[in-house]
């Protein structure tokens, strides 16, 4: 295993050991590509969500948020093109019956080649995918002698499309008329509510509608922990603009979204843009924001110029006029849309991968190390840990006083057990940026020791300053 793979395995284990992410229904051996968030994971995820929501809605006067249902009228998915188009080319190995997404199979093989050979293979694949040339893709797999990892053979079926939507039945009668889908993206809940929001909010184009919610995709190849899940959450924003201005807004949102990522303090070298080679049926431009995960640069967010495709389709299928009257130019039109779509779980994985560090603290006298999660303070699950040095002499009472005051404002953790050094290390492992120790001197002069997670430096400050100091770092 490479060092990066080792690191990724260590991150997955850490997530489980410290209550961030558990396999779903683990006591029954789990469910493939479905995960549960534990006590610290749920906090971290909520903080990422809040940071995105605030930056989209509170900080943009022309963006409002909604919360649409997961179930939608089935015609929604005919209009959006998902019934006909939301599929990936797949291939099965006849000996193992294992199914692969064609691009993943070829990409996996490319990783075993030299850089030049891999580049050549991937560009051939991109061309064939762009042309929907399934016979060509099969020939590419065969001519490169790509084998199934289970059977070890190259005995392949033809390449076929496989729809990724989950369906279920509404009500009690199980006939086709009652078939509905679990939404594969949150965007359509925004489009069908375009007029409701525009009218009731008296919104003027350009304006945006944001939403955070679950989406479901029957991903065939579920790999890389929470990177590709079957049930996941998206944070999407659809920005409605006057036709003809979409290019300008696309560039603006591309820049703004990258700035959002960088505002969390991540090194710019860890990010890159990647233009889509093959545009989706609804898009006239599309780019991914990619992050360097331990398994390489991969998409975390997509920015798509979706034209007027979705609103026009809903207009046609619902036979209801979905238009906007622009008083500035005295014209009715169907707005164009720029979409920013980020996976919450992928952003979670990014945050965890970026924060995880195994730090060597050895001195010539003693070998030592720690695992520290260097989360940005505003995302950390717990902001402040409060420790009385001992369980006696009124120290717990003083510590409780601080706890009661601070817990109104942010998430705090109180602990009396074990030596202080051990307590610090436990907080490092879950990424708590500040620890406070209350000792005998606190009783005399009202000061406490604050210990900083990243530098491990300690200083004495008045207990009365603690709350304001932490607040100043997390807003
Ligand atoms: N199966 C999934 N598990 C977790 N997050 C996902 C999944 N599919 C999509 N996302 C997230 O939703 C975002 C927007 O969805 P979009 O439809 O653009 O993804 P996509 O291009 O289909 O992703 P991919 O190419 O990785 O399948 C993605 O950038 C990603 O962060």
UniProtKB/TrEMBL annotation:
<dbReference type="GO" id="GO:0004820">
    <property type="term" value="F:glycine-tRNA ligase activity"/>
</dbReference>
<feature type="binding site">
    <location>
        <begin position="299"/>
        <end position="300"/>
    </location>
    <ligand>
        <name>ATP</name>
    </ligand>
</feature>
<feature type="binding site">
    <location>
        <position position="101"/>
    </location>
    <ligand>
        <name>substrate</name>
    </ligand>
</feature>
<dbReference type="GO" id="GO:0005524">
    <property type="term" value="F:ATP binding"/>
</dbReference>
<dbReference type="GO" id="GO:0005737">
    <property type="term" value="C:cytoplasm"/>
</dbReference>
<feature type="binding site">
    <location>
        <begin position="217"/>
        <end position="219"/>
    </location>
    <ligand>
        <name>ATP</name>
    </ligand>
</feature>
<dbReference type="GO" id="GO:0006426">
    <property type="term" value="P:glycyl-tRNA aminoacylation"/>
</dbReference>
<dbReference type="InterPro" id="IPR002315">
    <property type="entry name" value="tRNA-synt_gly"/>
</dbReference>
<dbReference type="InterPro" id="IPR036621">
    <property type="entry name" value="Anticodon-bd_dom_sf"/>
</dbReference>
<dbReference type="InterPro" id="IPR045864">
    <property type="entry name" value="aa-tRNA-synth_II/BPL/LPL"/>
</dbReference>
<comment type="function">
    <text>Catalyzes the attachment of glycine to tRNA(Gly).</text>
</comment>
<dbReference type="GO" id="GO:1990742">
    <property type="term" value="C:microvesicle"/>
</dbReference>
<dbReference type="InterPro" id="IPR022961">
    <property type="entry name" value="Gly_tRNA_ligase_bac"/>
</dbReference>
<keyword id="KW-0067">ATP-binding</keyword>
<feature type="binding site">
    <location>
        <position position="185"/>
    </location>
    <ligand>
        <name>substrate</name>
    </ligand>
</feature>
<keyword id="KW-0963">Cytoplasm</keyword>
<dbReference type="InterPro" id="IPR002314">
    <property type="entry name" value="aa-tRNA-synt_IIb"/>
</dbReference>
<dbReference type="Pfam" id="PF03129">
    <property type="entry name" value="HGTP_anticodon"/>
</dbReference>
<keyword id="KW-0030">Aminoacyl-tRNA synthetase</keyword>
<feature type="binding site">
    <location>
        <begin position="343"/>
        <end position="346"/>
    </location>
    <ligand>
        <name>ATP</name>
    </ligand>
</feature>
<feature type="binding site">
    <location>
        <begin position="339"/>
        <end position="343"/>
    </location>
    <ligand>
        <name>substrate</name>
    </ligand>
</feature>
<dbReference type="Pfam" id="PF00587">
    <property type="entry name" value="tRNA-synt_2b"/>
</dbReference>
<feature type="domain" description="Aminoacyl-transfer RNA synthetases class-II family profile">
    <location>
        <begin position="120"/>
        <end position="364"/>
    </location>
</feature>
<dbReference type="GO" id="GO:0070062">
    <property type="term" value="C:extracellular exosome"/>
</dbReference>
<comment type="subunit">
    <text>Homodimer.</text>
</comment>
<keyword id="KW-0436">Ligase</keyword>
<keyword id="KW-0547">Nucleotide-binding</keyword>
<feature type="binding site">
    <location>
        <begin position="232"/>
        <end position="236"/>
    </location>
    <ligand>
        <name>substrate</name>
    </ligand>
</feature>
<dbReference type="GO" id="GO:0004081">
    <property type="term" value="F:bis(5'-nucleosyl)-tetraphosphatase (asymmetrical) activity"/>
</dbReference>
<protein>
    <recommendedName>
        <fullName>Glycine--tRNA ligase</fullName>
        <ecNumber>6.1.1.14</ecNumber>
    </recommendedName>
</protein>
<dbReference type="InterPro" id="IPR004154">
    <property type="entry name" value="Anticodon-bd"/>
</dbReference>
<comment type="similarity">
    <text>Belongs to the class-II aminoacyl-tRNA synthetase family.</text>
</comment>
<dbReference type="GO" id="GO:0015966">
    <property type="term" value="P:diadenosine tetraphosphate biosynthetic process"/>
</dbReference>
<dbReference type="InterPro" id="IPR027031">
    <property type="entry name" value="Gly-tRNA_synthase/POLG2"/>
</dbReference>
<dbReference type="InterPro" id="IPR006195">
    <property type="entry name" value="aa-tRNA-synth_II"/>
</dbReference>
<feature type="binding site">
    <location>
        <begin position="227"/>
        <end position="232"/>
    </location>
    <ligand>
        <name>ATP</name>
    </ligand>
</feature>
<keyword id="KW-0648">Protein biosynthesis</keyword>
<dbReference type="InterPro" id="IPR033731">
    <property type="entry name" value="GlyRS-like_core"/>
</dbReference>
């Amino acid at each position: 295993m490479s060092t990066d793979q080792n690191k990724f395995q260590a991150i997955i284990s850490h997530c489980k050991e410290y209550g961030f992410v558990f396999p779903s229904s683990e006591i029954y051996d789990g469910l493939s590509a479905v995960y549960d968030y534990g006590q610290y994971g749920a906090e971290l995820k909520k903080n990422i969500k809040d940071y995105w929501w605030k930056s989209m809605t509170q900080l943009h006067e022309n963006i409002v948020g909604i919360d649409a249902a997961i179930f939608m009228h089935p015609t929604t998915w005919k209009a959006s093109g998902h019934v006909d188009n939301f599929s990936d080319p797949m291939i099965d190995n006849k000996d193992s019956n294992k199914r692969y997404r064609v691009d993943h199979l070829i990409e996996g093989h490319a990783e075993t080649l030299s850089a030049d050979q891999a580049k050549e293979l991937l560009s051939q694949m991109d061309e064939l995918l762009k042309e929907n040339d399934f016979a060509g893709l099969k020939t590419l797999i065969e001519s490169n002698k790509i084998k199934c990892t289970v059977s070890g053979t190259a005995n392949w079926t033809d390449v076929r499309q496989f729809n990724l939507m989950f369906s279920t039945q509404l009500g009690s009668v199980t006939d086709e008329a009652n078939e509905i889908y679990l939404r594969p993206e949150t965007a359509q809940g925004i489009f069908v509510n375009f007029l409701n929001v525009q009218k009731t909010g008296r919104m003027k184009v350009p304006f945006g509608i944001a939403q955070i919610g679950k989406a479901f995709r029957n991903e065939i190849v579920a790999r890389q922990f929470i990177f590709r899940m079957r049930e996941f959450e998206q944070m999407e924003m659809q920005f409605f603009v006057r036709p003809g201005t979409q290019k300008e807004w696309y560039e603006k949102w591309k820049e703004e979204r990258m700035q959002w990522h960088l505002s969390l303090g991540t090194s710019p070298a860890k990010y890159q843009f990647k233009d889509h080679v093959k545009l989706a049926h609804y898009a006239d431009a599309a780019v991914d924001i990619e992050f360097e995960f331990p398994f390489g640069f991969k998409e975390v967010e997509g920015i798509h110029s979706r034209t007027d495709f979705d609103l026009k389709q809903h207009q046609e299928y619902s036979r209801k006029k979905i238009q906007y009257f622009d008083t500035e130019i005295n014209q009715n039109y169907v707005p164009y849309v720029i979409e920013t779509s980020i996976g919450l779980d992928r952003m979670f994985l990014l945050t965890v991968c970026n924060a995880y560090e195994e730090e060597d603290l050895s001195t010539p006298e003693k070998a030592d190390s720690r695992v520290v999660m260097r989360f940005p303070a505003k995302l950390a699950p717990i902001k402040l840990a409060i420790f009385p040095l001992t369980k006696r002499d009124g120290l717990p009472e003083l510590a409780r006083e601080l706890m009661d005051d601070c817990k109104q404002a942010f998430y705090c953790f109180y602990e009396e057990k074990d030596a202080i050094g051990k307590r610090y290390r436990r907080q490092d492992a879950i990424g708590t940026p500040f620890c406070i120790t209350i000792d005998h001197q606190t009783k005399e002069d009202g000061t406490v020791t604050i210990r900083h997670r990243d530098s491990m430096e300690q200083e004495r400050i008045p207990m009365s300053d603690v709350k304001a100091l932490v607040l100043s770092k997390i807003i």
